[in-house]
User: What shape does this take?
Amino acid sequence: MVVAAGRGSRAGGDVPKAYRPLGGRPMILFSLSLFSADKQIRVVQPVIHEDDAPLYQAAAGGLDVLPPVFGGATRQASVLAGLEALVAHQPEIVLVHDAARPFASAALIGRAVAAAKLGAAVPGMAMSDTVKAVDAREHVTQTLDRVSLRAIQTPQAFNFGALLAAHRNAAAAGRDDFSDDAALMEWAGHSVAVFAGEAGNVKLTMPEDFARVESERLAMLADMRMGTGYDVHAFSDGHHVMLGGVKIPHTRGLAGHSDADAVLHALVDAILGALAEGDIGVHFPPSDPQWHGAASEPFLRFAVERVQARGGMIAHLDVTVICEAPRVGPHRDAIRARIAAIAGLSLDRVAVKATTSEKLGFIGRGEGIAALATATIRLPWSG
Ligand code: MG
Assistant: This one.
């Protein structure tokens, strides 16, 4: 279960915390894709705030996870809503994870799954700071023995039935003030074990947390790459052309591979070029009948996923459309928005320009459309 139902108002920003971009991707995507890719996890249940449904759909609509359920007024109520939705799937164990910790690793999930056999287990870190208790006036009342203290993270791991029963009992008893699920299990009389957490599994709460994490992440993505792409399609009979995933009415159509979207094809080649991972024809052969007439958006999604699989990010996409007609200018904003949506980028990382060929050459004679693209990507430095 990935819990993202809070408002996260301390984090500031224009959008709720879970949807704030980290390296161009909404934060909630980090946890959802980590858990959905894990072979040991059968289903992933997102719990979101009701008001965030459109944001969630835009960010995570295509992921292989269960439909989101809406959380309640407290974190505890939100987890209970998620647990009730999971009853139908009869899980043996459940891991409860906060979307505000986007950097959990597959290894941590492995330890959590193993520890769940104990009934209740949480990832913890030894404390390096000295910890003191204070009174209401911020005066120290006690210095705690840090050797016996642990800072607790998520994912927290539980026997599903035991956690569900504890949550139902707490709700029935009118208790809604538990700060985490482990505290609720302690209240219910269960013993809670601690397994090794991860220093990198930080919780992002304040605006400066986001700024720090962004700059640390960018510093690691020091392998800057640029790739170029070029594509041409000839006009044929038809009533529209596809450019950048946008249908533009025209007196002609375009012939060729898939829907002949030269803009998306050039962008795919630019990204694959930056990755040095072949070209669009290698990954989607024109001889393969399944691509005949197909929409080109999955090709761009594939290229973006290749960048993400390498732990990288796309910094910028730039494309120039060259044709005498149709006029691209009126559709420029729609094309930019479509490319940004497909690639999961903010609008200011996508540029679309258009020019003619001054009536020169095959483009000048109105025989086809060309597109030139440049992709700037950042990959982790690997020497
Ligand atoms: Mg093409």
In short: The chain has two domains: 2-219, 223-379.
